[in-house]
Specification:
The chain has helices at 43-51, 93-103, 108-121, 137-149, 167-184, 195-201, 219-224, 229-234, 243-249; strands at 3-14, 17-28, 32-36, 58-63, 66-67, 78-82, 155-159, 187-192, 204-209, 212-217, 239-242, 265-268, 274-276, 287-300, 303-310, 313-320, 332-338, 343-344. The protein is an alpha+beta fold. It has 2 domains: 3-234, Rossmann fold (3-Layer(aba) Sandwich), CATH 3.40.50; 239-344, OB fold (Dihydrolipoamide Acetyltransferase, E2P) (Beta Barrel), CATH 2.40.50.100. The strands form 4 sheets. Strands 6-7-8-3-9-10 form a 6-stranded mixed sheet, sandwiched between helices. Strand 1 and strand 2 form a beta hairpin. Helix 2 crosses helix 3 (108-121), helix 2 (93-103) packs parallel to helix 4 (137-149) and helix 3 crosses helix 4. The protein is elongated and about 80 Å long. The two termini are 32 Å apart. The relative contact order is 0.12. The mean pLDDT is 92.
C-alpha cells in the first residue's frame, strides 16, 4: 500500500533544544498508528506538526500525495481530539457535533442526517440534547470524537484523549475508539505514553525516544522482538541483565543456541521462565538453569510476580495465580529460561 501520510526529515528545535531529530515516517491509509514514548520524547510535537499547529524547523509533511508543510491548519482536512475535549459549554451534544458542518455551509438536512448518524455511532443518541456539564468524562470524550469525525476528515489525530479518565472506563473507550476507527476506515494517529494502551489500539506502534523513532513495528513484534535495550524496558516488562552477570549466576551446563560472549546485555520476559522447588532431572540443552530464593511475591490480577534473588541479582518471574502452586518467601527455587526466548543486545 502507498503511504498516505509521510514525514520526511522532520527536525524541530526550540531554541537550542533539539526536540525532533530527522524523523522519517510513513503511515498507510486506514491504519491506526500510535506515537508512543515517555514525556519529552517529541511525540506530541510531531502530532502538532502534522496538524499544522506547530511548524517544523526543517523537513516536509505529505498527506494523500500532497505537500502540506506550509498549508494552514484549517485547510489540512484533519480532525483532532485532545486530552481536554474543549466542548462548547453553551451547546448541547447535537449542536457541538454540528458546529464544524455549519462552518462549512452544509445544508441543514444534510447536517441533521450526518449528526444523527455520528451520535449514534459513538453511542450518545440518548444524550444528544444534554450539555457538556451534564455528561460524564467518557460521554464528553465521545462527543468530542463525534465532533472531530462528522466532517469526514482525511486523518484523525488523538493526543492522549483518555489520560484523564478512570482505568475501567478508559479500557472500554479504547475498544470503542478502535471499533469506530475500523468502522469508518479512517486513518488515525494516536499519541500516548501508556504502552498497554498502545498495544490494545494500534495497527503499528512508533516507539519514540529522545526525538527519534526507536523502533516501528506491529504491537506483537515490538513486544516479542525489541531492537534495543530501551524498547525492551519500555514495552511490557523484561529482565535486563549484563551478560557477564547472567553467566555468573547460571548453574550446571552452559546451553547451546546463543553465543553470550558476543553480547553485553541479555533480556528475557518474566512469563517465559519456568519455576520449580526441586532441581529438574533433565535440563534441555537449550535452557539456562538458575538457582535462587524467593524474595517476595506481588499479585497482578490473574498472575503472580515473584522476585527471585540469585546471589546479588534479582530476577522477576510471572506465573498464573494458582493457589495449589505457590512459593513462600525464602523458598529455594530453580529457574529454567529457554535460550530461544532471550534477546541479546
Amino acid at each position: 500500500m502507498a503511504e498516505y501520510i509521510r514525514f520526511e526529515h522532520i527536525c524541530k528545535n526550540f531554541g537550542e533544544k533539539k526536540v525532533l531529530k530527522d524523523i522519517d515516517l510513513g503511515i498507510e491509509k486506514g491504519e491506526l498508528v500510535t506515537l508512543l514514548g515517555p514525556s519529552g520524547c517529541g511525540k506530541s510535537t510531531l502530532l502538532r506538526i502534522l496538524s499544522g499547529l506547530e511548524d517544523a524547523t526543517s523537513g516536509k509533511v505529505y498527506l494523500d500525495g500532497k505537500d502540506i508543510t506550509n498549508v494552514a491548519p484549517q485547510n489540512r482536512d484533519i480532525g483532532m481530539v485532545f486530552q481536554h475535549y474543549s466542548l462548547f459549554p453553551n451547546m448541547n451534544v447535537r449542536q457541538n457535533v454540528a458546529f464544524g458542518l455549519k462552518k462549512k455551509g452544509i445544508a441543514k438536512d444534510e447536517i441533521r442526517e450526518a449528526v444523527d448518524r455520528m451520535i449514534d455511532i459513538v453511542g450518545l443518541s440518548e444524550n444528544a440534547d444534554q450539555y457538556p456539564s451534564q455528561l460524564s468524562g467518557g460521554q464528553q470524550q465521545r462527543a468530542a470524537l463525534a465532533r472531530a469525525l462528522v466532517t469526514k476528515p482525511k486523518v484523525l489525530l488523538l493526543d492522549e484523549p483518555l489520560s484523564a479518565i478512570d482505568a475501567l472506563l478508559r479500557h472500554s473507550l479504547q475498544v470503542e475508539i478502535r471499533r469506530i476507527q475500523k468502522e469508518l476506515n479512517i486513518t488515525a494517529v494516536f499519541v500516548t505514553h501508556d504502552q498497554e494502551e498502545a498495544m490494545v489500539m494500534s495497527d503499528r506502534i512508533n516507539l519514540m525516544h529522545d526525538g527519534k523513532i526507536e523502533q516501528s513495528a506491529r504491537p506483537i513484534d515490538l513486544y516479542t522482538n525489541p531492537q534495543s535495550k530501551f524498547a525492551a524496558t519500555f514495552i511490557g516488562h523484561y529482565n535486563v541483565l549484563a551478560t557477564e552477570k547472567f553467566v555468573s549466576i547460571m548453574t550446571g551446563q552452559r546451553p547451546v543456541g546463543k553465543d553470550l560472549s558476543r553480547s553485553q546485555t541479555i533480556a528475557f520476559r518474566p512469563e517465559i521462565i519456568g519455576i520449580s522447588k526441586s532441581a529438574p532431572a533433565n535440563v534441555p540443552a537449550d535452557v539456562y538453569l538458575l538457582k535462587g530464593k524467593v524474595s517476595m511475591s506481588l499479585p497482578h490480577g490473574n498472575f503472580l510476580r515473584y522476585n527471585i534473588s540469585c546471589g546479588q541479582t534479582q530476577i522477576d518471574v510471572d506465573t498464573l495465580f494458582n493457589r495449589d502452586k505457590l512459593y513462600e518467601d525464602g523458598a529455594e527455587v530453580y529457574l529454567q529460561i529457554p535460550a530461544e526466548s532471550c534477546i541479546l543486545f
